[in-house]
Amino acid sequence: MREIRKPLIVLVVLLALCALVYYVSPRAAAPVVDDAVLSAAPKGEASAPSPEVLAYLEHSSGFQYLVSYNGRSFAPAVLTIKKGETVRFINNSSKNMWVAATGSSGEVYPGSGKDCGQSAFDMCKTLKHGEFWEFTFTEKGSWSYRNNADSTNTGVIIVL
Predict the structure, then answer these.
(1) Residue bearing the bigger pLDDT, 110 or 159
(2) Residue 150 contacts residue 95 (beta carbons within 8 Å)
């Protein structure tokens, strides 16, 4: 019986030490959600939509998918949708965003931009934080794009 008692006491002491270390050691803070993702207005500022955004929304028929730009990348970077569906590209960063077709995944999206560009899939302007642009994909294919304000940020929309 004595042979079991000594290892049992050692085990209890070790468990007590582990519990003490657990309760005394600092814990990692819970992850903080970036307010920029939750709000279209910059942190600490509440602002009404601009007249341009209100006019755009008045003619918008809605969107099925959302692509968010965070200043470093688009999320999701690759999105698969069906022909005729609309994607909203929103700028959730403090940097400018200008979505434009590149053709790096094959062909450039057909059509021409209203005011610029070689493709209908081109915003033709930069957007600031909280602003967005919607595009309805009417052509099947794999359509690559980039942020013309920072061409290292790219994405692909696959239209089935």
Answers:
(1) 159
(2) yes
